[in-house]
Design a protein that fits this description.
Blueprint: E1 5-8, E2 15-18, E3 26-28, E4 34-36, H1 40-43, H2 65-89, H3 102-115, H4 126-154, H5 158-163
Helix pairs in contact: 2-4
Length: about 200
C-alpha cells in the first residue's frame, strides 16, 4: 500500500487514513464534521499508518452524540405514543344512542328517570375531573411525541452546534478622554480663540 498517515476527527475522535495525494483537500467524517487534510509538509508530521489486519482497523467509537440523541428521541417518542395510546384505549365511551332502536332508547330514558343520570353526566363529579385529567395526559403525550420527533430530526445538527464555540468577545478599549487643561472643547467652538475675531 502507498504511504499513508492517520488524521483524527476533532468531532468524534475517529482516525482516518489519508494519503499524500489528499493534502490540502477536505472530506466529511461520518459524524458530519468536515475534516481538512493538512498540506504535505504538515502531513508528514502525522503518525504513519501501518498495515493492520482489517479486523483491527475499526477504531471508531460505537456511540457518538448523534446516535445518543436519536436514541433518546426514539424513547421519548415511544413514551408519548404509549401514554397517548393508554389513555385513548381506556377513554370512556358514550352510550351508543344513535345505534339504538326507539324501544331501546325509551328503556334507557325510563332508567334515567328512575335511577337518575349516570355519574358521567353530572358536572361536579369526580368523573368530570378524571376526564379533564385524561385530556391533560393526552396533551402531555402529544408534547412527548413532538419532542421525540424533534430530537430525532435534530440529531444531525445538535453535535455540530455543540462543537462550535462562540467567538470570544474582543475587549473594548475605553474611549480617550480629553485632558483637563484650560477650556473644554465644545461642539461648534473653534479650537483657536483667535479665529473668533
Amino acid at each position: 500500500m502507498a504511504e499513508s498517515y492517520w488524521i483524527t476527527c476533532p468531532g468524534c475522535g475517529y482516525r482516518h487514513r489519508v494519503v499524500p495525494a489528499q493534502a490540502g483537500q477536505y472530506f466529511p467524517c461520518s459524524c458530519g464534521q468536515r475534516i481538512t487534510v493538512p498540506p504535505l509538509r504538515e502531513l508528514r508530521t502525522l503518525p504513519p499508518a501501518q498495515e493492520e489486519p482489517t479486523a483491527q482497523i475499526s477504531e471508531k467509537p460505537r456511540w457518538d452524540i448523534r446516535k445518543m440523541i436519536t436514541l433518546v428521541g426514539i424513547f421519548v417518542l415511544l413514551a408519548g405514543i404509549a401514554v397517548g395510546g393508554f389513555f385513548w384505549w381506556t377513554w370512556p365511551r358514550p352510550f351508543p344512542v344513535r345505534q339504538m332502536t326507539p324501544a331501546q332508547t325509551w328503556d334507557l330514558w325510563q332508567r334515567f328517570q328512575e335511577q337518575g343520570l349516570p355519574r358521567r353526566y353530572i358536572r361536579n363529579d369526580p368523573f368530570v375531573q378524571e376526564m379533564q385529567a385524561r385530556r391533560l395526559w393526552m396533551v402531555f403525550a402529544g408534547i412527548l411525541c413532538f419532542l421525540g420527533i424533534a430530537l430525532i430530526l435534530s440529531a444531525r445538527w445538535i453535535p455540530q452546534l455543540l462543537q462550535e464555540s462562540p467567538p470570544e468577545p474582543e475587549e473594548a478599549e475605553p474611549p480617550e478622554q480629553p485632558e483637563a487643561e484650560g477650556q473644554m472643547d465644545l461642539p461648534g467652538q473653534p479650537e483657536n480663540p483667535a479665529e473668533l475675531s
